[in-house]
Design goal:
- The protein is of the alpha/beta class and about 300 residues long.
- The chain has two domains: about 1-215, P-loop containing nucleotide triphosphate hydrolases (Rossmann fold, 3-Layer(aba) Sandwich); about 215-300, no CATH class.
- It contains eleven helices and twelve strands.
- Helix 4 (about 120-135) packs across helix 6 and helix 9 crosses helix 10.
- It binds adenosine-5'-diphosphate (ADP) and magnesium ion.
- Adenosine-5'-diphosphate binds next to strand 1, strand 2 and helix 1.
Length: about 300
Amino acid sequence: MLRLDGVSKTYRAGAFGGRHLTAVRDVSIELRPGEMVSLIGESGSGKTTIGRMVLRLTSVSGGAITFDGDDISTLEGRRLKEYRRCVQGVFQDPFSSYNPVFKADRVFSMLRTNFFPGVPDAEWRHRVEDALISVRLHPDAVLNRYPHQLSGGQLQRLLIARALLLDIKVLVADEIISMLDASTRIDVLNLLGDLKDRGLAILFITHDLALGNYISDQTVILRRGQIVESGVTERVFTNPLHPYTRQLLTSVPQLHRNWSDIDTALAVAPGRCAYHTQGGPTDGRQLAEAEPDHLVACLATGGNTSCPDG
Ligand SMILES: Nc1ncnc2c1ncn2[C@@H]1O[C@H](COP(=O)(O)OP(=O)(O)O)[C@@H](O)[C@H]1O
Ligand SMILES: [Mg+2]
């Protein structure tokens, strides 16, 4: 349904835009109906950039993103609006998505103005209530309230309800549970599971390997803008092949370690390069198929130079 094919993103950096920073390089991901893909990587690895390209909030520098076969960069006018009805995002900080001086239900009235001007009042109210109930919010508990009167979990759900009103097919969820407390996290994850069962494709972006992976179908591990490993979640987690993925997995409980420690450990690890033992690229790019539905990149991918074969 939604495909990223060899997608790259280069930003102009520096005061006069003279330098360039490649934030995403040659990334291919497929989102299918009823499937959740976890996109996992440390801070700065390009996750949000990927989400923003999918949402067409920023342009693609190389490669293409297609939705039902159409290159989304070519969409304009009515077709772009149609795309936005199908593909929506919910972001990290639920509080920043709300203007504190307006009541929370303003997100719904703006949606109505933009997308559903012809829907009568009673019908609209009905649709809003349905959407709220499907994210397990009681309409009376959230409508007519100011953002500061609601919890982070309630605001996050309001945003998901807003997306649902558009009858979306793809949801980009960028770090949406990182800021929630543990029990609210589980609720929101369960909600995402329900949405998946209803046929939504979900791109679940997280820097935290421990979050939400149990409900994702596919996992993509991103390092410095490049995919180092991807595949069926269970295979990636039970048989991690890239040393970076292994480092991520082993460091999950070690909260005292930071990412630079992991990088150092990776640089000196003699680690067997699964990519080279598998004979190189099988997807036409930088990933080798180590087993069915499980791809791995060379150890050197993402700036590491210690691959003995590479
Ligand atoms: N608008 C921008 N202009 C220039 N550089 C950017 C911009 N947005 C992000 N970057 C840079 O791109 C890289 C990836 O950022 P981002 O996609 O936000 O990563 P993540 O979400 O994984 O933390 C970072 O080095 C970041 O500084
Ligand atoms: Mg981000």
